[in-house]
Design a protein that fits this description.
The chain is α+β, with helices and mostly antiparallel strands. It contains 8 helices and 11 strands. An 11-stranded antiparallel beta sheet has the order 1-5-4-3-2-6-7-8-9-10-11. Helix 2 runs antiparallel to helix 3 and helix 5 packs antiparallel against helix 6. It is globular. The relative contact order is 0.09. The N terminus is likely disordered.
Length: 267
């Protein structure tokens, strides 16, 4: 009899706790699918009668604070991330196929030390939900100003520069100079093949170098494009290419950044 009364009181407390948090949830609704699952799970807990009296209130309260409390954060306002690809040879559509520690400036707030990964193929940032390596949330691009991952900074070019431009999406911020800045667009193409009865996807990665100069973005993927952009430094640029053939082949990203810095210092 006393156990039934205790359980009844506990259910009342839980109901009040859930009602309060759900009011917060309704004022600022995050990921709908995730929250519905969470609410259903909590409601199921109310029907369980085998908890120990001293621990069940504490454990459920902690779960509520952790789960619903985290979901109310703006950074959990996104879609469930799906990865439907069956890989042919190990290549993935990500910068790094696993979640890694990083930082995100999202919806006017900085979130540090969170698990994220960058889907290059779809140009989307994915955040791990509750540090789960198998479950992620696709963040909303227009709310993402920048993110840092693997000591690399990626900015949303649409949010940072409002003037008309032909490029869009996330770019690696490789060099910020006095007169010019270099941005790199990492992207992947997908090729599907059928082997026997299985559909496989193979990804290949490419890069697009964009130079910000006089409030305009200019493609600088080739030596010819760079010479066209800076004809006054034609001799110096050609000489730089001759002296740095090995870095150009072994580390093209850093070579291009060093070249742009060289041009910037000579303008």
């Amino acid at each position: 009899m006393r156990k039934d009364i205790t359980r009844s009181k506990l259910k009342t407390i839980l109901f009040i706790n859930i009602s309060f948090k759900l009011k917060l949830y309704c004022k600022n609704p995050p990921l709908k699918i995730t929250n519905y699952a969470t609410v259903l799970f909590i409601l199921l807990l109310l029907s369980i009668n085998s908890f120990s009296q001293t621990n069940e209130k504490k454990e459920i309260s902690n779960y509520l604070d952790k789960t619903i409390g985290e979901e109310i954060l703006n950074i959990n306002n996104g879609k469930i991330h799906l990865d439907p690809y069956n890989l042919k040879n190990g290549n993935t559509n990500y910068l790094n196929k696993n979640f890694v520690n990083g930082s995100v400036f999202y919806d006017n707030q900085l979130y540090e030390n969170i698990l994220i990964k960058y889907d290059i193929y779809k140009d989307q940032l994915v955040k791990s939900f509750e540090n789960n390596s198998a479950f992620g949330i696709t963040l909303i691009n227009k709310k993402t100003d920048y993110f840092l991952i693997e000591n690399r900074r990626f900015i949303n070019i649409d949010n940072k520069y409002k003037f008309p431009k032909v490029i869009t999406g996330f770019f690696e911020e490789k060099y910020l100079g006095k007169n010019i800045s270099l941005y790199i667009k990492h992207f992947k193409t997908a090729k599907e093949t059928i082997i026997e009865t299985t559909l496989y996807t193979e990804f290949k990665e490419y890069s697009d170098y964009q130079l910000l100069y006089n409030s305009k973005f200019i493609a600088v993927n080739t030596q010819k494009e760079i010479l066209t952009a800076f004809p006054q430094l034609k001799k110096e640029i050609k000489e730089y290419y001759k002296k740095n053939k090995i870095p150009e082949e072994t580390n093209p990203y850093q070579f291009k950044a060093d070249l742009i810095k060289f041009i910037d210092n000579n303008l």
